[in-house]
Amino acid sequence: MSMGPILETAQLSKSYGRIRALDNLDLSINEGMVFGFLGPNGSGKTTTLALLLQVLRPSSGSFNWFGKPQWDNVRKDIGAILESPCFYPYLSGYQNLMVSARIKEVNLAAIEPVLRTVDLYERRNDPFKTYSLGMKQRLAIASALLANPRVLILDEPTNGLDPQGIVEIRNLIKKIAGTGKTIILASHLLDEVQKVCSHFMVLRQGTKLFQGSVKDALTDQSLIEVAAADMQYLAEILVTYPGVEKVERRDDKLVFKASSMSTAQINHFLIEKKIVVSHLAKKNGNLEEEFLRILAKHE
Amino acid sequence: MKNYRPFWILVIMYIVVVILITCGGGLFLQFLKKQGADFNGIDPTLIPLYDFPDIWQNMTYLGSFCKVILGFIVVISVANEESFRTLRQNIIDGLSKQEFLWSKLLLILGLSVGATILMFLCALLMGSLYSSSGGMQQVFQSMDFIWAYFLILLTYLCFCFWVTLLLPRTGLVIVGLFLYTIIFEPFFALFLENFPYISDFIRPSTAFFPVRSLYNLIPVPFSKFLLREFQEFVSLKETMIVIGWLGVNLFLCRLILHRKDW
Fold it and tell me: Is ipTM over 0.85?
């Protein structure tokens, strides 16, 4: 899956006067990753993307795409949405995509399929200013997809969409990721990153707090819950199982970190110890807990 | 741009104003006569406004006052790219700043060429209708004013371009440019030229002001009829100053575009 870094940054920083919007970011993203930028509002996600897309000038540090120095042509291989969709309000959706197509040096025939992908084909001749927020967002995604780019950058792609729209966009992202494209997704919605991304980093006040794979973060967080008639005895037995470090009592259940254990192994072990469980379940962690833990660790 | 209504409104406004100014001059003189005005006993309608080759200077002098309207077109076109954030989106899509610069310079060039052709046709038409002197040689004498007119437009529009890049607020820039072009700089220049206690070394510096230098390029023609002596050609020195400003304006456009965060 990984075929070497597609993006590398070194000590990338951006200041606005005294405010340090991004502080010495070192980041490496490999081809094929679906990489999430996670952080509260104002943590530097959009600033980072704007720097990477060369609409902002870095205060210091450097980056490169595809191992090449920063040149304008590189951006033609990247499809991006930054913040809210920006188009000429008095042009129709189709005409706006014509502008994008001309810049990206793409054949105009590419416009129709992307309009169909985002379900805007029927409205293609209406002026952009008559579109609803969701339609504007979808047109932005269409524009990003236009050049069949190697990398797709999406900044808060589901912002302002209704629940159905959110599901559609997520499925679209997953579909695109399935074709092997690299996707960089910035979001403050943990759930979104968890559902879509393979890797993520956490930003706060311009500083990178954490970077890792979503799967690892989730297995780190997954727990096993057990309950039996004699809870005291159950706890004593459980700590003897290899890999179990600490057993905690939560309500009427015992809880411990799952690491790589399966519920079947635990069940088997407890039956050997002649304990009959009344409850046994593995609870997958979620990114929210991990995220809060990371933030708390850096308080 | 071609689908943008205010653009066409301004273009039409410009064409109408230029035609009015160039073709309405004769009517205006008749109006003056009716009002009983006279210039040292000369009947105003006898002023040879449309005689070749003077017509080139007269018309381009009047026409150059309308350049503010073309300036608005450039301001709106550039400021819109920022307020719609389409410049940002276009850069994200892979447009280089150089390409953006060229696209807007092409617009400026197009407007300048168009306005110059319009001026040429108007003057030619009015001249052939009203000129008392004829002959090919006389008709195309003093054509340097047409070139000067073109140069003035080009320089002025580039000036508008970088000012808009610097302050991307349509209303602010339009009011600011208007005041600066029409009021502030002329008054400041007058002040420098006429106020006592200013060293004679500073006085001629007004010739180097960005807008004043443009006005100087085509000298006031009508004094001919009153004073019988005036400059009947485009001076090389003033042309050089304007070309210098053109270079400075272009350089500033580039500099601001590359320096700024979008």
Answer: no
Cβ-Cβ contacts under 8 Å, A145 against chain B = none
Interface test with B, best of A16, A81, A84, A88 (most B CBs within 10 A): A88
Mutate to test the interface with A, among B3, B4, B77, B92 (most CBs of A within 10 A): B92
What is the second-level CATH architecture of the domain A5-213?
Answer: 3-Layer(aba) Sandwich (3.40)
Strand order through the sheet with A253-257 = A248-250, A253-257, A223-228, A277-283
Sort out which chain A residues have CB atoms less than 8 A from B4's CB and list them: 88, 90
Pair of tokens at residue A175: 């579909």
CATH architecture assignment, domain A223-283: 2-Layer Sandwich (3.30)
Contact between B125 and B52 (Cβ < 8 Å): no
| Two structure tokens written together for B229 | 């002596």
E strands, chain A, in order: 5-16, 19-30, 34-38, 60-65, 78-81, 151-155, 182-187, 199-204, 207-213, 223-228, 248-250, 253-257, 277-283
- Domain spans of chain B, in order of start: 5-259
The structure's pTM equals 0.78
Q: Cβ of A55 and B91 within 8 Å?
A: yes
Q: What is the mean pLDDT of each run of 10 residues along chain B (262 residues)?
A: 72 83 68 59 58 74 80 87 83 83 90 89 79 66 81 89 84 83 76 67 67 73 54 73 87 85 69
